[in-house]
Amino acid sequence: MRGKHRVIVSTKRLKYEFELRRNLTIIQGNSATGKTTLVDMIRDFVNNPSGTPVELICDKECYVLEGTLWKQQLSVISDCIVFIDEGNEFIRTVDFADTIQKTDNYYVIITRESLPSLPYSVEEIYGIRTSGRYGTLKQSYHEFYRIYGANTYENPIVPEIVVTEDSNSGNQFFEQVCRENQLDCESMNGKSNIFHCLNNHKNKKVLVIADGAAFGSEIDRVLQLLQERKNAALYLPESFEWMILNAGILKNSRIREILEDPSEYVESKDYFSWERFFTAVLIEQTKDTYLAYAKRKLNPAYLSVSVKKSILEQMNKIQLTGMDR
Amino acid sequence: MLKIFYGDMKEAIYNTAAYFKYDYEDEWITEPFVKEMIKDVDQSIVLENGVIDSPVLGKIPPLGLSGGVKTLILVAFEKDKIFNASTCGDNCAKWLLKIAENEDRTINLRHLMRFGPEPFTIHILNTDQIVHSTEELVSIAGEFV
């Protein structure tokens, strides 16, 4: 499945309206905001085809996945939107992550737990709010709101340490930039180590660079840790490959079109996260050119002064001291 | 005191809504402090006969309460059980502290619930440490969620 899909679920008393943009959406937030009621309404609509007071409008079929037979249920669901309420322990398993990776559905999961096996974006974690009455006076209107905005953690800092989540090309790029500016650069070997690193460097100015497209499972605890600290910043582009594509280095109108609306291009069955999609696009678009991109080893062409400058210019509010920018 | 084990905990009851369904007792719902919790978290009024008047859903039975309130009620009345309190939002935090004010309660959390800016006393079982502020709590408990 690809694209954006609007879902409208309503009864006489309630109306929910929201749009899904990626394969994985998480709903959390305060108690009593209507998360479980939303899933109950969808379940009632699906299970009572001969008649139900629940109305569901969507260009895709919607289902509720639950219980110990989740895997069997999922094997017959394709090109659909799948809702999972809290209380389903299977969402935390690697088996679940492996299974849904091979499907072409979109998933809406209600949970406050972090799910490190799933690469969900910080931008696709929502709460539900009631924004007043709608239509008849009896009907209350519920909509999603984004819990974590895109650029809210970019404190204006000059870091002493730059932390990246893995040791691939992105890390190699920032390692070189740091070397040129006499800064430390540490690779975390996985996003789940970032919290521990920040906890250990409480008195240092730290800049964390991670893939926003898959940082959803870490964002809450990392942000809570940083809340009291003015000496740390979190920079969360979709991914390093997205930074390159967005830097305008590749003069290519197709790339601009993709970046303007990635939802329309990312096939969920092929790409579990947008990070993987942007990597594939970059590899494809630079193939057989001097900028030929490889994930594991950085092509030195990306370290040339002009290319490097274009990539780094996207990091608003963050200064890497002494750099020729 | 409120005792919390962070992260996976085998002996904790994970699906609290399912547990509540077959465990709650009518008298629990009409206890004054439960009425107060329901009013605060669910913005609903418990009527004399235990029916609940919800501004959104109309008249509902206790099974129609929010997952957070169901868990709070279980924590309050099932003293010897440990429940997954990650089914509670931050708007339930003050009630967890209140329930454990005079009697020990142990809960399991799989996320960092926000207990607010006021000083509190929480025993983190993973490290056997007692903390009094969010800053202290996050830096210790964050390692386990």
Fold and architecture overview:
Chain B: This is DUF4869 domain-containing protein. Chain B: It comes from Hominifimenecus microfluidus. Chain B: InterPro entries: DUF4869. Chain B: Pfam families: DUF4869. Chain A: Keywords: Initiation factor, Protein biosynthesis. Chain A is globular. In chain A, strand 10, helix 4 and strand 11 form a beta-alpha-beta unit. Chain A folds into two domains: 5-146, Rossmann fold, CATH 3.40.50; 161-312, no CATH class. Chain A contains ten helices and 13 strands. In chain A, 28% of the residues lie in helices and 20% in strands. The mean pLDDT of chain A is 92. Chain A has helices at 35-47, 70-74, 94-101, 169-180, 194-200, 216-226, 240-246, 253-260, 274-286, 305-312; strands at residues 5-10, 14-20, 24-27, 55-57, 62-64, 81-84, 106-110, 125-133, 140-146, 161-164, 184-187, 206-209, 232-235. With 325 residues, chain A is an alpha/beta fold. By secondary structure, chain B is α/β, with parallel strands linked by helices. Helix content of chain B is 32%, strand content 18%. Chain B has a five-stranded mixed beta sheet. In chain B, helix 3 (32-42) packs antiparallel against helix 4. Chain B is globular.
Mean pLDDT of chain B: 96
Structural class of chain A: alpha/beta
- Total strands of chain A: the figure is 13
Number of domains of chain B: 1
Number of domains as seen in the coordinates of chain A: 2
Enumerate the spans of chain B where pLDDT stays under 50 for 5 or more consecutive residues: none
**Major β-sheet profile of chain A:** 9 strands, mixed
